[in-house]
Amino acid sequence: MPLDPYFANKMKVLEKFDSVAEAMADPETAKELAQAFKDTETTEPPSGEVRDAVVDTREGPVNVRLYTPETVDPSTPVFVWVHGGGFAGGSIGMPESDTVARELAFLYGVPVVTVDYALSNGTTITYPVPHRQVADVVRWVRDHRDQWGAPERAYCLGGASAGANLAVGSVLELRENGEELPAALLLVYPMLHRELVVSDTLETGLSEALGLTRMNQGLVDHMFTLYTAGKDAPFASVDGHDLAGFPRTLTMVSEYDDLRPSGEVFHDDLLASGADAQLYVAEGMPHGHLDRTRLVPEVGQSVKQMAEFLTKA
C-alpha cells in the first residue's frame, strides 16, 4: 500500500527544500520542520503496575523498568524490550519503549522489562558498554523469573532499530557461552548490518515515499562509529555470524524503511539456518512507527502482532 496518509502529509513540508540540511540551517525553518513531524494528538497509554529497579552488570548498575499485568498466565513469557535511537539516543520513557511496554502488559497480559542502557557517544561510552549492560539485564531476567510467579516461565527478548541490534548481540554472546537462549526473539525495524542492504525491487518506492528523509550509508556509518569507536566489536552486528541455533524469531519491518531490506535478508538467513522465522511487514509505515501516535491504526496493529507472537512462545 502507499505510505500512510498521516505520514505522507507530514512529508509535504519538505517539498520546498532541496535537502534536510538546508531546512535545518535556518532556525525558523528548522522549527517549522520539527513541528510538522511532531505528533500533536495521540491516545492515553494504558495504566497498571510499573516500577523501577536496578540491575548490577559488568558495566555498572543499570536502571530497568518492570511492567506487571494484574494477572499473568503461567504460560506467558516475560519479555525484555530494548528501545532504539541509533545507539546514541532514545530512552525508556519514549513511546517506542514505555507505551509499547504498557500496551503489551496491560492490554495483552505480557510482563515486560525495559532497559535504560548507556547511550553511546563515540568516546567515553562505546561498545561493549551498552552491549554488556543489555546482555546482563537479559541474564538477570532469565535468572529471576520467580519474580513473576513461575520459575519455569519462558523469557523472550526483543528490540527496535538499534535496540534490535543490541538484542541480537545478546543472543550471539549467550549462544557463544552455551547459555540458555530466549524462547523467542522479536525484532522491529532492526538495524543489523553495517552496510545498508539495497533492494532493486524496493528502491523506487522508497525514494518516492521518503524523499529527503531516506537513510544513507553515511548515517549508518556515523551510528556505528558512535557505538564502536572503530574498535573490534564482534557482537555489534550480524555480519560474519552464522545463525544456527537462533530462537524462534519474528522480524517486523516497516514497509517504507531503508532498513527493510536488511531485515528481510536477516529473515531469509534465519530460514536458511533452519530457524523458525516469521516476517511481518507493517504496511504503509516508515521507520520508527512504534514511536508514533496510536491514531495511526497500523501502530496498534503492530503491537497486537507482537503480543500474538510472544504469547505463543
TrEMBL record:
Q: Where does the Alpha/beta hydrolase fold-3 domain lie? A: 80-289
The alphabetized UniProt keywords are: Hydrolase
A Pfam family annotated for this chain is Abhydrolase_3
Output the InterPro entries linked to this UniProt entry: AB_hydrolase_3, AB_hydrolase_fold, GDXG_lipolytic_enzyme
Could you tell me which PANTHER family the record lists for this protein?
AB HYDROLASE SUPERFAMILY PROTEIN C4A8.06C, ALPHA_BETA HYDROLASE FOLD-3 DOMAIN-CONTAINING PROTEIN-RELATED
Q: Could you tell me what this protein is called?
A: Esterase
Source organism (scientific name)? Pseudarthrobacter polychromogenes
